[in-house]
Amino acid sequence: MRLESLTPRYVEAQHGTYLRRLEEAVKDPDNRNVAVTGRYGAGKSSVLDEFARKRGKKVLRLAISTLAPGEEGESTTNRIQKEIVKQLLYGASSKVGRNSRFNKIAVLSWRQAWLQSALVVVPLGVLAYLFGVLPHMKWPGSDAAVFWRVLVWLGATVLVTGLGSVVRMLTYDRFSVSDVSAGGAALTLTAAPKTFFDKYIDEIVHYFDHEAKDFVVFEDLDRFEDPYIFEALRELNVLLNNTPKRRRDPGATGSPQSEPLRFIYAVRDSVFSKIDASPANKGRETENSDPNGKAQDPDSTAKSEPHSTPGGARVSELDEAAAETQRANRTKFFDVVIPLVPFISHRNARDLLAGLLEERGVAGIERRLVNTVARHCTDMRLMRNMCNEYLIFSERLLQPVEPTKTAPDLDATHLFALVVYKNFHLEDFENITRRDSDLDRLYDLAQRLVRENIAGLHRRKRDLESEEQRVRTRDRDAERMGELLSDYAALLLKTNNPYGWTVLRFGVGSTFYSPKDLPTYEFWAAVAEARSFTIAVMNSETSNQHRNVATLDANWLTTFVPDALQAHRWTEFDEANAARPLADIEAEIDLLRRATFEDLVKASQFTLTPTDGEALRLLPRPKPEQPQTFAQLVAATLKSKLAAELVRRGYIDRNFSLYAAQFYGNFTGVDVANFMVQHVQPNVMSIDYDLSRHRVGDNEGAVANLLAEAQDAGEELLESVAAWNIDIVNHLLTTDRAAARVVAGQLIASWASEEPREFLSAYFTSERAEGEKLASLLAACRWRDVYTYLVSDDGVPTAARASLVNAAVGGFDTHATYELDDEVRAFFETHYRDMRWLCGEEPLGESDDVPGRTEGQSSERPLERIDTLLQRTKVLFAQLRPLRPDVRERAVAGDRYKLTAENLRTALGLSDDEGLPLEAVRGRRDVYKRCCQGLSSYLGAVKNDERTDYAVNTAETLVAVLEDLVADFEDGEVADPGSGEVAALLAHTAPTATLHQLQDAPDST
């Protein structure tokens, strides 16, 4: 399909009326200034083209497209006059221009130089012959033929003429006669001045006196918004029509009869809206002329302060009708005004644009897009140009020839939308290739909006899951807090019990609870509501009398058991109701990850609060720091309503950069292609970009295609922040551990910056992420802070901490140095039951199937690695029974457990019905030694154990224990047990173990 010319085209049906009116107007000799008015694209040039075609050389057309820079203070009117004079004089014929003081550049040919030289040489030779001053030639013989004499003189003449021609060519336009001195016969030649005379009326009169022009057509004068030029041209027309030659000599202009000179103007009516109606402005127009007649720019006076009329009224308060009447006086500039009725408007532009597309055989463009464009485009030439450009773009992008290929998911509708955007925003379209366009800025804002809203949703999710986790662990927490309170009450009973009663009760409000109720969440829920309770004693279980021993208020609770006051921890938990908001959050996250520009415009619940200077400048609002919806960001970023509407309706989407140039890559999906352009090439992180497309048949998934394309393009994707994407890391953790290790190394190396923290927080919170695999890999990569981060960072979901720390346990490297502080130890002691590497019924065995472990890692088996980790953290397990058998054995051997009756039975392999006297404990040396080193703890455990009557049952055991205590003290393994601990031991010794002879006791005691 051929491209349609954008030049004006005369159509009889549309322009015939105006042409006939114009021809009728110029027939009247009194109509010497005729205006053809109408908006841009109304058809003024089409009418004037046909008018000029019919009159041929009698029409002179002047179009002022630009103005040359003027002198300081020079008005726009004078600058326009300068351009008119230039076009007049430099368009004159050589006959007219010969007598002009404006010397045009002309090329002198050798033929002209020869003729000019001959015109000088030949007359001079003839004169010299007549006066007898020619040189006398001596001929070889007096009888030489006349023929040879004539031939020699002709040769001499030709030679002199040739030399004159050379001199003429060398000096042409190089010199001008500046000074002639007769007294000393001196002749001075100087360089001609290179000045440009802007305003010489005699030159203009000379031009029209000698050129056969009856009509002068002025175009494009209205683009400079200066109505005063028309007044100056009207005065010029009057002067030219009153020159003697045109007034007295009917044939001077070459016309068969006397014709006045007519000026015809193509102009917009709106240019005259600048004429001020105020009387004071008329005075200023007079004042704006300097003594040399140079008028100042009216625009400059318009910027001055408002003035008052003689009556005291301000100009801005003048009656608008009077102002409009003054503007209507534009008719004083013209003798006839021929208005052109607009044939295109926003109401019929749709049909015209659709017709242009249909004429060119363009199909596949949505009708709604045509309607959208037509509402903003009412210029026929622009419509034609858009259709022309679309034909070329579609030929190169929709039906390309190798090696170029069709851009992914590109169709006629999206391509036409981008062509429309190009025609309305030429410079911004060029900036797309440099990623510096408004659309690129909008893309960045969209990415920020998505990231910040997903981060906010992740925070909400972590809070909900944390709340859920707290409720789920309330029984365990109640048990732990009950033990603390029970120990405190027992101590209080020993030190502050004047009544001697031994039955404890805990009063919350009007209700009393027994010690058996302390490990229940019902008790702590009541405490949280009352915010205090009392400890009382009774003389028996059935007594109704009680005496208060102590009152524990909120300050005490906050200090010793702060979780007790968190009432929400103890409330009933409705799992169904808790699941609904989590499901809604996941749905919103999924929407944001896959959202197009159109989706974000519709999702007004998501906002972005700009903080950087560039974003703030984009938002011309009173308070741009307020949250902005994406629709508001679109309106603020894009420079036209059409561009904003194209985005809002989805015709320009986030893949716009793929459609702005030819596509050479392999088709790997629009998601991959756009990610390459927007993130891989500029090295920009996009955590949530959707690359979840899986493999279908022989077609690889999105991430596999991306990695292959990045490798072909020479992009170091794994070493860049662009790899910090949830789908990319998932793929690497599942399919390529070595590549995943590279990405993990980059995260660790860049930990000082904000981006790695942002990525890990989003990754560990995401439902679809392989969080445990990454946690294990980070530990295997010897990240020093992996455990402290997983345990304490707010970006890690509370509900997932235990599983993530468990995964990091599996990746522990004995040769690495990790930060293992008290917070990490406390977390292990509280959550070890949720770690599958530590707890379970089966032993770890010799398996080394650790996620993330690669060649070159520590060669120790999992049991050795875990034992080393537990040793470094100095964990004391509250219960040994949940541990795996081999882990439990290592914990017992390493004294990594609390001395409780349950743990002693577990360590000794005793049943729940068996007691824990030292006779049984001595059966295992490491457990016995642990009891000796923590004798007070052992005695406390035995005292509260219903199955154990005495710590020592025989005298032989008592003597052995005393000897071991003394030996351990002398070896420095234990501190001085002192008389208190020995006394406590003797107090828990059976009467049958009494030493009847003092010498039976060790000498050291």
What does this protein look like?
Keywords: Membrane, Transmembrane, Transmembrane helix. Pfam families: YobI-ATPase. The chain has 1005 residues and is α/β, with parallel strands linked by helices. Among the domains are: 12-102 and 199-303 and 322-339, Rossmann fold (3-Layer(aba) Sandwich); 110-172, no CATH class; 473-560; 902-1000, no CATH class. The chain is built from 44 helices and 13 strands. The strands form 4 sheets. A 5-stranded parallel β-sheet has the order 2-5-6-1-7, with helices on both faces. Strands 9-8-10-11 form a 4-stranded antiparallel β-sheet. The longest helix is centred in the middle third of the chain and has 35 residues, at 438-472. It starts with 11 loop residues before the first helix and ends in an 18-residue tail after the last helix. The relative contact order is 0.05.
Roughly what is the average pLDDT, rounded to an integer? 79
Question: In DSSP terms, counting alpha (H) and pi (I) runs of 4 or more, how many helices?
Answer: 44
Which CATH class of the domain at 12-102 and 199-303 and 322-339 applies here?
Answer: Alpha Beta
Strand order of the largest sheet: 2-5-6-1-7
* Basic shape: elongated
CATH architecture of the domain at 12-102 and 199-303 and 322-339: 3-Layer(aba) Sandwich
Structural category: alpha/beta
Q: Which regions are unreliable across 5 or more consecutive residues at pLDDT < 50?
A: 191-198, 250-257, 276-318, 848-856
Biased composition (Basic and acidic residues): 296-306
Protein name: YobI-like P-loop NTPase domain-containing protein
InterPro entries: P-loop_NTPase, YobI-NTPase
Domain YobI-like P-loop NTPase: 18-439
